[in-house]
Design a protein that fits this description.
68% strand; AOC barrel-like; 156 residues; single chain
């Protein structure tokens, strides 16, 4: 249902010489293994693990992702979702970024929420960023399209 792997796609701009914040927008595509358990009409639980397969707008950028995985879970109590998870992205140099996500709203096959960067290694040490996402998943194929917007900053 929900694929949160593409959050790092927001990093589509080149590195500045000094710290600078960029407005970003990007899309990723992934495959998920998801488990949805309706315990009752007013109580459901969802958990997933996803592998990112394709990124739009990252080639040649400061964070050209070559692999990513996301995982998490949330519950829905009387129509209100609560929960989240994490994503780990690896760039072409082997440096990584840890990203966290939270779910804010769900619809049939769609999820909306917020994301932020927790930190990174190598060239991404001290990375900072946050924004929103919209995820659309095909339950039969397990494929997801995740569109993100937000801001990102690398330290000097």
């Amino acid at each position: 249902m929900i694929d949160f792997r593409a959050i790092a796609l927001a990093l589509v701009l080149s590195a500045p010489a000094v710290a600078q914040t960029y407005e970003v927008s990007a899309t990723s595509y992934s495959t998920s293994t998801s488990f949805f358990t309706p315990l009752s009409g007013s109580l459901q639980v969802y958990r997933s693990q996803s592998t990112l397969e394709r990124y739009e707008g990252l080639a040649g950028s400061r964070l050209e992702i070559v692999e990513g995985t996301c995982f998490g879970s949330f519950i829905i109590v009387r129509g209100t979702p609560s929960g989240g998870g994490n994503c780990i992205f690896t760039d072409v140099n082997g440096d990584q970024v840890l990203q966290a996500w939270n779910i804010d709203q769900v619809e049939q096959g769609k999820g909306y929420g917020t994301w932020y960067f927790v930190g990174g290694t190598g060239a991404h040490e001290g990375i900072n960023g946050r924004g929103t996402y919209a995820d659309e998943t095909d339950a039969l194929s397990g494929t997801s399209k995740n569109t993100i917007t937000g801001t990102v900053t690398w330290p000097e």
